[in-house]
Design brief:
This protein is α/β, with parallel strands linked by helices. It has 8 helices and 8 strands, in the order E-H-E-H-E-H-E-H-E-H-E-H-E-H-E-H. The protein has an 8-stranded parallel β-barrel. The protein is globular, with a radius of gyration of 16 Å.
């Protein structure tokens, strides 16, 4: 299973060292960009991400938890090959999808939102990003109700033979990642789970999920 690290649980005073300790064991680094308005938290922006880009060749993705992703996405395309925005932040994403040239596109769904909210856009994006916790803070408990949402998206993607992957973020550990995988997810983003303990062993176990 494809596995990414959210640096939300990292020590922000030594983010470079935090990323380096994973080496090439990860598939990608997930950047949680929060504006303190769309979500009740404030993290970091382009200057921090651009500086971290210099220390690793791992792919970066930006998760824009902001009120105006249509205005901000360009700030992140220099360092992030994939940019994810929330369907809840826009009345219709089609203009933004058409504008986002040169990057892989993803649409995120908050836990209360049904899969149907993004189904019509699946042919136009690379990632259906399913939140299993309310966005904003690390360490929250996984909501198993989203497993049905994953299964529905998997069915739609497979039926139309689309190239859209399903990634799940929030409350991810080995047990919840296995549930997501069985429901049809292709990738997970882990944060607090990968911040301590035997990290190489944890990563190997996540990536071995079938």
């Amino acid at each position: 299973m494809e596995t990414g690290l959210s640096i939300l649980s990292s020590d922000f005073s030594r983010m470079g060292a935090e990323i380096k300790k994973y080496g090439r064991s990860l598939d990608f680094i997930h950047m949680d960009v929060m504006d303190g308005s769309f979500v009740p938290n404030l993290t970091f922006g382009p200057p921090v991400i651009d500086s971290l880009r210099k220390i690793t060749k791992l792919p970066f993705e930006a998760h824009l938890m902001v009120v105006n992703p249509d205005k901000q996405w360009k700030w992140y395309r220099k360092s992030c090959g994939r940019i994810i925005f929330h369907i809840e932040a826009l009345r219709s994403p089609i203009a933004l999808i058409k504008e986002m040239k040169g990057v892989k596109k993803g649409i995120a769904l908050n836990p209360p939102a049904p899969a149907e909210k993004i189904e019509k856009w699946l042919p136009h994006i690379e990632t259906a990003f399913v939140m299993s916790v309310p966005p904003g803070f690390s360490g929250q408990k996984f909501d198993p109700a989203i497993l049905k949402k994953i299964a529905r998206l998997r069915k739609k993607i497979d039926a139309k033979k689309l190239k859209c992957r399903i990634c799940v973020d929030g409350g991810i550990n080995l047990e919840t990642a296995a549930l997501c995988r069985r429901a049809g997810a292709d990738a997970v983003v882990a944060s607090a789970y990968l911040s301590s303990g035997n990290i190489p062993q944890k990563l190997a176990a996540l990536k071995a999920l079938r």
